[in-house]
Amino acid sequence: MELLNYWGKAKDSDEGPNWHPLVYHSLDVASVGDVYLNKHQEFLRFISNEINVTPSTAQNWIRYLLLIHDLEKFSRAFQGQKPDLIKEITGASPPPTSYETRHDTLGFKD
Hints:
- This protein has helices spanning about 20-40, 40-50, 55-65, 75-80, 85-90, and strands at about 5-10, 20.
- By secondary structure, it is mainly alpha-helical.
- It has 2 domains: about 15-70; about 75-110, no CATH class.
- The chain has a two-stranded antiparallel ribbon.
- It starts with 6 loop residues before the first strand and ends in a 20-residue tail after the last helix.
């Protein structure tokens, strides 16, 4: 499957596009975080002091973490939540999958 054929955000609306490619969503989040850190240097210095690295290194790590924050959305299980959208994007039906645990809670422990 082509990299741009994965959805990151989807909406049920007739206005505008009903999905945003996952790659672009990830880049958007990292870019917004980068702009935020550039405008809030005191916060960036606080983080860099806490983890004992230079502000530049802290910003690079934060940018990277923001970029990969939704990596699990590339999974068949996540993408399969919207089979009609997958059919629209790729022209093919996704294999049946089960998505029982939300992607934002997969790291939680009971």
